[in-house]
């Protein structure tokens, strides 16, 4: 792993940035600046059916308006097919990835039939390993990681532990809580987990700062990093902005785009979510002020672990 702090902000161009997106962007930018590091922007457009035409450039303009400018070329996941394919082939060659012929309905039916009636209210969608030993005549649809095979071959414990710089000690048993997760989808598109792990390594990312809603992905990504022999970054998951319904603010539940007629106002709201004081501006002065606070370990309310 690079000795130079390298962070990134990785929005999906399914719409414009909203208040929750800006919290993650500001947090990652400040953390990079406080560590005298680099900050990349990566457009995560691997899920092409959900992408909105022109949203990628609009997002970059929103970031520029807020003074959050990347330190180098913007990377787009839609250009990474060759790298993702090579990673999948490596896993297949090691016997750690297998084809799956199950549809979503078949997975849900298998879980339903294997769950005792008294537990059906608490049923979780954990892939039961139906195709792990073979397709049994079904055509291949997706490719999955054989989590238990990876853990056994590498001497990894069943429970993956990591230290989140804000949330503290975290753990998850991926085999039990998730199952063999998808690497390439049935529609031929690359799965988020594989693309993120390959891209973070290719860009030399040492520190991942992102929303708390993505914390649940971390254990899967660590298992995949180990399987591919890639370094594991340090993780920090930021507080979420909640909508009026109490759920995470998102494009799916009607989050409005940032009102950048007054970028400082939007930045001040994001800073407050991070526990940082408001600043009267202008934007560059506010960013410099918050960066200086982040350099002081005693003044990092959302980042208690250096």
Short characterization:
With 306 residues, the chain is α/β, with parallel strands linked by helices. The chain has helices at residues 19-34, 55-65, 81-93, 104-114, 147-154, 174-177, 192-202, 218-227, 263-273, 283-295, and strands at residues 6-9, 38-43, 75-76, 97-100, 142-145, 160-164, 168-172, 182-184, 207-211, 234-238.
How many extended strands?
Answer: 10
Largest sheet strand order? 1-2-3
Percentage of helical residues? Answer: 25-40%
Q: Low-confidence spans: pLDDT under 50, at least 5 residues?
A: 116-123
Number of helices: 10
> What percent strand?
5-15%
* Mean pLDDT level: 90
Roughly how many Å apart are the termini?
17 Å
Largest sheet: number of strands, sense, barrel closure: 3 strands, parallel
Rough outline: globular
Rg (C-alpha, Å)? 20 Å
What's the helix-strand series?
EHEHEHEHEHEEHEHEHEHH
Task: Please identify the structural class as seen in this structure.
Answer: alpha/beta
Key terms for this structure?
three-stranded parallel beta sheet, about 300 residues, alpha/beta, 10 helices
């Amino acid at each position: 792993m690079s000795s130079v702090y390298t962070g990134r902000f990785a929005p999906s161009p399914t719409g414009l940035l909203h208040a929750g997106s800006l919290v993650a962007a500001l947090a990652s930018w400040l953390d990079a600046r406080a560590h005298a590091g680099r900050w990349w922007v990566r457009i995560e457009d691997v899920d092409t059916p959900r992408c909105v035409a022109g949203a990628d450039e609009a997002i970059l303009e929103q970031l520029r308006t807020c003074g959050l400018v990347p330190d180098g070329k913007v990377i787009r996941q839609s250009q990474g097919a060759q790298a993702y394919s090579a990673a999948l082939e490596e896993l297949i060659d090691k016997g750690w990835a297998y084809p799956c012929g199950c549809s979503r309905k078949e997975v849900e039916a298998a879980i339903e039939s294997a769950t005792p009636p008294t537990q059906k209210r608490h049923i979780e969608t954990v892939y039961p390993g139906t195709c792990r030993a073979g397709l049994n005549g079904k055509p291949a649809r997706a490719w999955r990681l054989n989590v238990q095979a990876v853990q056994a071959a590498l001497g990894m414990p069943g429970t993956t532990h990591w230290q989140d710089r804000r949330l503290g000690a975290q753990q998850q048993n991926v085999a039990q809580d998730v199952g063999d997760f998808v690497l390439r989808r049935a529609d031929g598109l690359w799965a988020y987990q594989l693309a993120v792990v390959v891209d973070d390594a290719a860009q030399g990312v040492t520190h991942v700062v992102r929303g708390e809603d993505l914390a649940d992905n971390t254990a899967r990504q660590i298992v995949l990093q180990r399987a591919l022999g890639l370094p594991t970054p340090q993780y920090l998951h930021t507080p979420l902005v909640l909508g009026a319904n109490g759920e995470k603010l998102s494009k799916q539940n009607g989050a409005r785009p940032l009102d950048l007629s007054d970028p400082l106002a939007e930045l001040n709201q994001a800073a407050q979510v991070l526990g940082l004081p408001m600043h009267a501006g202008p934007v560059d002065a506010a960013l410099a002020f918050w960066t200086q606070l982040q350099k002081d370990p005693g003044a990092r309310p959302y980042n208690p672990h250096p």
